[in-house]
């Protein structure tokens, strides 16, 4: 049975077909979020503190996301994040402020110009089922990237590596744990002893499995899958595909000339032993996606 439709009004604008960009870590969600944020009519947030806290609560404890009140929680926290008030941008992340071209206190968009809302917060992927319950007309854009390049960038990112401390799989952790890619408590010791590259590979593997589930279960008119590599190689085609999917004009300029890591960086930057481990852990997914 389809959940009831909720009417949400923010800044005097009815929220219709909100757009959510989801991906594994370092897979391009921020890159596309930047393009959407700079497109006419869009008000897209990226990593607002209250949203991030809810997203990570759902990611680390899936039972919370499955509770009956989860859709209301995420709908309310996004509605708050989308409010345009003086000084609101001071609460945004540096990534979001840069994407919006914010100088000073902002805000990054005028209420009279808003026609579409969205969010591209890190690790939003794990909230996808709840988002689709909260916003039954939501549009999801998911991005896939070569897991070896993802692991390379994760290893260079202190924020990503903080998730791999032993206490992240404490005695009260829930299993299966899709956020860290660990199936059961019996694997806790093995996970703790695994090299960082292996833990990163588990996160990527779990994320692309969630993406595959979305492709099977979400109607085509609500889900678009992009390749990170194609976004960089063919920004015009990517912009066209996203524009057609969302039925609105999406900026192409924001996808050009970015400092995003180029495909294949892992060949020089990833230690051979780490590359071998990543391919061992995620061989099935790398092969299915055409990276092996």
From TrEMBL:
InterPro entries: P-loop_NTPase. It comes from the Bacteria. This is Sulfotransferase.
């Amino acid at each position: 049975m389809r959940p009831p439709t909720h009417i949400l009004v923010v800044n005097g604008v009815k929220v219709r077909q909100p757009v959510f960009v989801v991906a594994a870590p370092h897979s391009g969600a921020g890159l596309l979020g930047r393009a959407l944020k700079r497109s006419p009519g869009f008000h897209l947030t990226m990593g607002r503190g209250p949203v991030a806290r809810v997203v990570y609560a759902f990611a680390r404890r899936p039972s919370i996301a499955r509770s009956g009140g989860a859709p209301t929680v995420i709908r309310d926290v996004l509605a708050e994040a989308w409010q345009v008030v003086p000084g609101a941008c001071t609460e945004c992340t540096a990534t979001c402020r840069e994407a919006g071209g914010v100088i000073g206190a902002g805000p990054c968009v005028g209420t009279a110009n808003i026609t579409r809302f969205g969010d591209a917060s890190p690790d939003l992927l794990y909230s996808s089922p709840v988002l689709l319950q909260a916003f039954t007309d939501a549009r999801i854009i998911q991005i896939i990237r070569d897991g070896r390049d993802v692991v390379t960038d994760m290893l260079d990112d202190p924020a990503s590596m903080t998730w791999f401390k032993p206490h992240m799989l404490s005695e009260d952790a829930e299993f299966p744990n899709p956020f860290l890619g660990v199936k059961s408590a019996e694997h806790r010791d093995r996970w703790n002893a695994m090299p960082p590259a292996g833990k990163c590979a588990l996160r990527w593997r779990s994320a692309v499995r969630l993406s595959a589930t979305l492709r099977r279960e979400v109607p085509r008119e609500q889900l678009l899958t992009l390749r990170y590599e194609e976004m960089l190689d063919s920004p015009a085609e990517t912009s066209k595909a996203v524009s057609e999917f969302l039925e609105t004009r999406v900026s192409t300029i924001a996808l050009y000339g970015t400092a995003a890591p180029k495909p294949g960086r892992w060949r020089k930057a990833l230690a051979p032993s780490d590359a071998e481990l990543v391919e061992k852990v995620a061989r099935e997914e790398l092969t299915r996606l055409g990276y092996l």
